[in-house]
Structure formats: structure tokens, C-alpha cells
Amino acid sequence: MEILFILSVPVVLALCPLLIRGARPLGWLSAAGYLAVLLVCFELIGRFLRQQSAIALYNFFYLDALSLFFMLVVLIVALAAALYSTGFIARDVETQSLNQNRGRFYYVFFNLFIFSMLMVTVVNSLGAMWVAIELTTLVSAFLVGFYNTKNSVEAAWKYIIICSVGIILALLGTILFSYALIFSGGARSLNWLDLMAAAGSLNGNVLKIAFIFILVGYGTKAGLAPMHTWLPDAHSQAVSPASALLSGVLLKTSIYAILRFVMIVNRSIGPAYTGHLLLLFGLISLIVAAGFIVVQKDLKRLLAYSSIEHIGLVAIGLGLGGLWGVYGALLHVFNHAVTKSLLFFGAGNIVKKYDSHNLHTIHGVVHVLPFTGIMVLIGVFAVAGLPPFSIFFSELIILAGAFLKGSYLVAGLLLILIAVIFGALVYHFGRIMFGKPPKDMAVTAEPVPGALAFVFLLFFICVMGLAIPDMINRLLLSAVALVRGI
After folding, report:
1. What pTM did the predictor assign?
2. pLDDT score of 293 more than 90
3. Which residues have a Cβ under 8 Å from the Cβ of 17 and sit 6 or more positions away?
4. Nearest to 143 by CA among 99, 104, 113
């Protein structure tokens, strides 16, 4: 019944604004709710590791190592975003950037967004998973256009239209998987377990075509290039806690969906076909991201293109396969989620203080926002892959996977592109962090809930780069074995 508790908490929290008027109490209530849910998630992980068996309910909900891992990532970022929202939204209401009703109803969409992402990870049916991913688009679009400015509304519509095209392609791919199952003499269910059981008898040619639709469709939502065009606009215009959720976990839920289909195709025709496609889209994503990061002038768009880079790295790790490639990719999912969320929180504070996204007009952040400035500096070095932070570790594992597999061209391209992006990020953030701040700009302290969110994420950024906690490591190894089919 823990699954029902995990899903019911966001729904209850989404109803609370109908009864509670203040934005700040709603923020603290959301944070308390997600702390409780995170603790239940850890209890489920502990039970799974003790029993080494999946957790199912009503033949509709299904939790194995992979879904538990992605649920954990969603809930860690959700708790941090709820803490950060507490101060961020309350400050917008107090300064009248938002009226009180709009501040309250932010939490309706915020909590429904988290509910929809959790649904992606717990359903057994690949059809229900498609519905949940479509729900993430519809709910999060309100958070992209939340400020109701010309740019934010335009970004929200662009997000809906492009992702809806992608999700239609994913639906076609899902239908083709169902077609392959029916004509193999298998059951008519779209449950992942049924498809996996029948994978050996499915028509390989149909699966190849179906997987292209799946990869392009869900890859659009994941932000893989060249289907990424919605992402920079949506991430830059969304309210900052929502930007963290979009970049930190929404992209990963689409990777999760792709992985479910990868496992079916790999069991049917072997891993080479899916591996080559993932490598192709991953490298394209890194090349596109590197080019735009070098010339970028908008702070939040810069972070958005960085997300495209890291989704590309995840795709490359999965494409390389093997223990090192898959382990590095899944570990990178976690590391990028916590690091990029911290950076989007920092970017939200900077944009609000300077009233600008333009990198050329922002200077002296460490003097004006000392706490935020220090956190962002650490986050930049972490996301750029500097040791001893967590992303360095997962990038190193993916590179090792490339060398061990003999993919020297892939490894060489990775090293070159990562070095270019590292230099560009240090250059851009060095300019805004230091120098003389605008005249008469007062020093601003970070609100307590926001500071807690930063410290909470920083803990994972530092710890995961030094020693992966045993529970997470064992869960990761179980998820890797599941993806590899062993």
C-alpha cells in the first residue's frame, strides 16, 4: 500500500490550496509531504534489496529496481524544489510579482506535476505510462507560462506543440509494439512484464520500426537533439523551481520510458540496434549543446543547453552498454538531477535580483548574493565535470566504458566536447560571478527554506562524488542488471 501513499500525497497537496490561503504555509506543507514520501521510498528500496523481488499492486502498479531508482531521483528533486518554492513563491507574493491567489495555485500545478512524474515510474502498462507522460506535458505547461508574459506564454505553447508531436510518435511506436505482441500469439496486454515475456517471439523488423518511433517520440520529451527545440525556451521561461523539475527529472522520466522499450528490443534482436541509435542521438546532442553553450547570452538558456549535453551523455552511456556504460549512465541521471536543480535555483535568485537573463548585464553575483554565488560556483564546477564532484565520477565511468569497449572515436569526441563545454561554462559564469556589481544594489541573504534546498542538494553532489552510499549503489547495480537483461 506504500505505492498508493506515495501517489496520494501529491494529490492531497494539490488540493490544499483550496483550503489554505498563504503561499508560505503551502510551501512548508509540500516540503513536509515530500520528506514523508521520500522516507517511504527508502523503505520500499530497503524491502526490495532484502527480498530481491519486484513490488506489485493490482497488476497495474509495478516497482522493480529501475522504477525505484527513477522514483528516488524524482522525490529527491521534488523535496528540494518544494523547499526552494517556499521562499521563492512567498517572496513573489510579498513583492506583488504574483497576487495571492496565483501564488496559492502555483502549488496545484507544482504538486500535480510531481504526481504525473511519479505515475510514469510506477505503472506496469506501457500504455498507461504514455498517458502519464502526456499528463506531465499538460500540467507542466502551466508552470512554463506561469508568469503570463509574452515570452513565457509563447514558450508554453511551443512546449505543448512540439512535445505533443513527439508524444504522438511515441504512441505510434507503442501501438506497433502492441501489434507485434498480438500477431506473435501473445497476450493483448501492454503490460511491460507481458511484453518482456513474449519478446523472444516478437517480429524483429516490426520492433525496429517501432523503436525508431519510440526513440524520436520520447526523445523529443527527453531533450535529445535535434528534437530539443522546445527545451531552451521552456526552461528559461518557467518559474525557477519548475525549471529545476523540468531539467532535473522530467527529462529523465522520458529516458526511463525509452529504457523500458530498449529492454524489450534488446531481448528480441540483441543490443546492437538500440545501442547504435542511442549513440548517434547522444553524440548529436553533445555537438549541438557545445555549439550553443559557447555563444549563449541568456543565463537560463545556458543551463538548458547544458541539460541537452548531459542527456546526450546518458544516451551515450546507454548506447555503449555493458556494465560500465549502463552503470555510468544511470549514475549520471542521478548526479545531473541534483546538480542542475541546484544551478536552476541559483539562476532563479540571480535573475530575480538583477531583473535580467542577459549574461552581459549580470556582474558581481558573489558580492550581491553571497550564499547563492558560492552555491552556483560549486554547482558550475560540478556540472562541468570537475573532481571531486559527482558528475566527474559518472562521466569518468562512461568514458571508461567507451575505452573498454574499444569505441575510441566515441571516447575522443566525448573528451573534446566535454573540454569545450567546460571552458565555455567557466568563462560565462566567471564573468557573472565576479567583477563590480551594479551601483547601489543591496546585499541579499538567502531565505531559510531556500538555503536548506541548496544544502540538501549539495550533500548529494559531494557525497556521490566520493563514495556512493551502499543502498543507492546496490539499487543501481540491480537496475543495471535489469537493463542488461542478466
Report:
1. 0.95
2. yes
3. 26, 104, 105, 107, 108
4. 113
The DSSP element (H or E) to which 63 belongs, if any, is: strand 61-63
Inter-helix orientation angle 272-295/204-222, to 10°: 20
pLDDT of res. 288: 95
pLDDT tens, residue by residue, 391-433: 999 999 999 999 999 899 999 999 999 999 999 999 999 889 8
Cis link prior to 226 (omega < 30° from 0)? yes
* Grid coordinates given for 7: 501517489
What's the pLDDT band for 437 if we cut at 50, 70, 90? confident
Is residue 252 within 8 Å of residue 73, measured between CB atoms? yes
The radius of gyration of the chain from alpha carbons, rounded to an integer in Å, stands at 21
State how far the alpha carbon of 9 is from the alpha carbons of 16, 37, 215, in Å: 11, 7, 32
Q: Can you give the residue ranges of every domain in the chain?
A: 2-484
123 φ, ψ (degrees, to nearest 5): -80, 145
Mean pLDDT of the chain: 91
**Can you tell me which residue has the cell 571508461?**
400
Other beta carbons within 10 angstroms of residue 361's beta carbon come to: 12
Contact 314, 329 (CB under 8 A): yes
- The cell for 469 is 552510499
Q: Which residues pair with 56 in a beta bridge?
A: 62
Nearest residue to 207 via CA among 185, 254, 253, 175: 175
Cell of 189: 496486454
Rounded to whole angstroms, how far apart are CA atoms 400 and 405?
8
Closest CA to 464 of 369, 376, 394: 394
Cα distance between the two ends of the chain: 29
> Above pLDDT 70, what percent of the chain?
99
Average pLDDT over residues 201-212: 90
Single-letter code of the amino acid located at 253: T
Which residues, 6 or more positions from 75, have their beta carbon under 8 angstroms from its beta carbon?
34, 37, 38, 41, 118
Phi/psi of residue 358, nearest 5 degrees? -75, 120
Return the residue matching grid coordinates 510506477: 122
Average pLDDT over residues 192-218: 89
Name beta bridge partners: 57: 61
State mean pLDDT over 65-80. 96
Q: What are phi and psi of 56, to 5 degrees?
A: -125, 155
Q: Which candidate, 124, 118, 156, places its Cα nearest to that of 9? A: 118
Q: What is the DSSP letter of 447?
A: P
